[in-house]
């Protein structure tokens, strides 16, 4: 029923896309915004003051408002100081200018105590992109790393402590205070965490909602990169939902400690991890899409789906990272092991450095290994802090690292430890725990699911767009907590039948619509109540919506 229903919708969507290409030149029209090409440009630094460090400016006013009748050029590193707020209205476009060196990459940074309110809408999203992108759709997804990215810094918990974590590349300034990776370590504007007093896990750094961040990131040095969206000790008072990352040059979203939650987020076509966390992050995630292309020239160094660290500094300090994650769909590029600096693995989940956490009801496709864990303890960690250096494998057996009710499609090994170029997957009791006790499955394929995204990274012409909704839906026995954050759905993966939360606002949905694939259309769902199955309960719900327009 799903395929027949979607085919009719897709014929219309694909036909419409043939006329409009991949353009978003009329972005925000539903909110009264003028065409993008007619908007005058203003350098954001004209609303800020130079603060004496190379390329650094701070906004002047208590409240700075960016409206959609203007295109704003992020021409320097622009900081939102403590006590000040930047408000970006729906339909607004902010373009990051190219810098002379990666270290000078233009970025937007909300300092600790500063707020970024970027509240777009489904009909009027907010777009951060490169100055080279005219939004006609002609700017290829190969164009990564053209500006720095968006940064939020807060006061929530992390596990940084001195003196062990202090030093080159270790991000620690003092107990509970770190500086952002890829940014100047001596510039206190880049600090996050407990700057004074105690941690505040309910800290509020603002709102990112219906926001697309494109072509950002920068590689300064091996292991020292700028991410498209960086979150340092961001608290759960911050709202992040419906955020799309396109073609980042490093991680799509990286979290350095904190308690912030993520919902309805996507990281696509990037060069490193889709979701990376470290330094004791303990937030929540539900409905997350991550995807690479099958073209290795477009995503040449694409790394893991999830890279999970408790503390990349090998310190044994607590708290350990322990997020709770439900309903991801993560699609790799089906590449085997390649030695490429720190981007050398191809794992759906790479659990490192004593990480904890919980991952349920998710679908991972097209990776060399599904779930890889560190087991060997580095010599440098055995004496650090006098702590117990429990690697991820030990935590998995102890029940503090949980991976249950997930489906790993087409992975060469579903389960592995210390996986390297020629390493073997796990078997025996470990595999029994993984597949039987924990309810994970490892099929070679799933009906209705297509994990291959094929496109030209220069022209953006899509040959094959994936269908991220298995048919029939993959049922699960793992139920999300009833805590006000998680939605109770009983299917695996980021999307239910007819429930595509990217369909009406994201750039990837425009690409998918042009390909005529099952991912692009929200369609009219048969699973009305979103419980993963179509039955008489859906029919009764449908009666209440009879003669209404399907949304």
Describe the structure.
With about 550 residues, the protein is mainly β. It has one domain (about 1-545). Helices cover about 10% and strands about 30% of the residues. The chain has five helices and 35 strands. The chain has a 16-stranded parallel beta sheet that branches. It is globular.
Task: Please tag this protein with its features.
551 residues; mainly beta; 16-stranded parallel β-sheet; twelve-stranded mixed β-sheet; 5 helices; 35 strands; globular; disordered N terminus; disordered C terminus
Gap from first CA to last CA: 18 Å
Structural class label: mainly beta
How many distinct beta strands?
35
List low-pLDDT spans: 1-20, 520-528, 545-551
Count of alpha and pi helical runs: 5
Profile the largest sheet.
16 strands, parallel
Mean pLDDT: 84
Question: Helical amount among residues, as a percent range?
Answer: under 10%
Dominant shape: globular
The rounded Rg comes to 22 Å
How many structural units, i.e. domains?
1
Strand content: 25-35%
Summary, kept brief:
By secondary structure, this protein is mainly beta. The model is unreliable at 1-20, 520-528 and 545-551 (pLDDT under 50). The longest helix has 19 residues, at 2-20.
Secondary structure elements and their pairing?
Elements: H1 2-20, E1 41-43, E2 48-50, E3 56-59, E4 63-66, E5 71-74, E6 77-80, E7 85-88, E8 93-96, E9 107-110, E10 115-119, E11 126-130, E12 149-153, E13 172-174, E14 177-179, E15 191-193, E16 206-214, E17 218-221, E18 224-226, E19 229-232, E20 239-246, E21 253-256, E22 262-268, E23 275-278, E24 284-291, E25 306-308, E26 324-331, E27 347-351, E28 357-360, E29 363-365, E30 369-373, H2 392-398, E31 401-404, E32 407-409, E33 413-417, H3 428-437, E34 454-455, E35 462-464, H4 507-515, H5 536-543
Helix pairs in contact: 1-4
